[in-house]
Amino acid sequence: MPLSDPGSGISHSSKRTLLVSDLSVLLVAVIWGSSYVVMQEVGESVPAASFLALRFLTALPVIILMSARTLPRLTRSEVTSGTFFGTLLFLILILETVGVKHTSAANAGFLITVSVVLIPLLERIISRRRQRAVVYGATVTALVGCGLLVLEGGFRPQPGDLIILGAALVRATQITLFGRRSGASRAQSLTNLTLVEFVVVCLLAGTLSGFTSVPVWDAAGSVSLENWLLICYLGVLGTSYAFFIQLRAARGSSSTRVGLILATEPLFAAVFAVAAAGEHIGLIQGTGGAMIVLAALVGRRFEGRPVGKPRPARPGNADEPSRTPSAEEATEGQGPVR
Q: What is the pTM of this model?
């Protein structure tokens, strides 16, 4: 029988498992934090579409192995959903990849996190779902932080800042829409959905690259060894590994716990921006970034909590309260991909 902490009732082995899970998710936040500097580095010699196609080509073998048991049962609804959400994922990532080339890595890391606090607003508009006042307060705080970041250099924001904010808006929309179809999504294989999404991103990025000066088939032969290592780093660790860790962690603890840890990503983005890219973070930029991170943490903590008195249970099912799952609950394990 495993030993347990008399004060908590949690066994020491469970605590160790939870600690390992938390550290694994924290590693994902570190990897994602470094991704902006990596995208800037590779983006100097590889166009965004070709870079994205190559990145997902390296991610596909891992996700194919992960879905080996469920792939034979691939359904039409999984293909349809995966195609739709894969298209949205492509839009998010191509905007990120282009945007980070026209702003600082630190700004990109802070601004993409705004998606977390935009979700409650979109749920209010699309699903008519109310949140606690503190969640909307966090949204306002994040938007003020955005203003400090975007207008740090004056009243002419960098184009990359606006592009990254566009990516954040698309990502918030993606999660909100996924949450609206929570009943159907729970009947689908998450690994099958992800595989279809990855294939769609790869195909769309490859097709788009054909209209650029360096299509993916040319880029694959001209990319330097150093850039190939960076592409594989983002493809295998920043994409496939990140998905696997989020899925396992959310099943073992909760999506809220995972989300709170992942909200530290912009902090690591700032660290890598300063240490690896030689960027300087001024007082205004640092204040704006801190406000966004704080808002994301608060929003993650209180999002989905009941507003006012809880509704009575459904007749015939006294154990299950009557409420609509939040977007965060519906996408448990889904997680973003950087």
A: 0.83
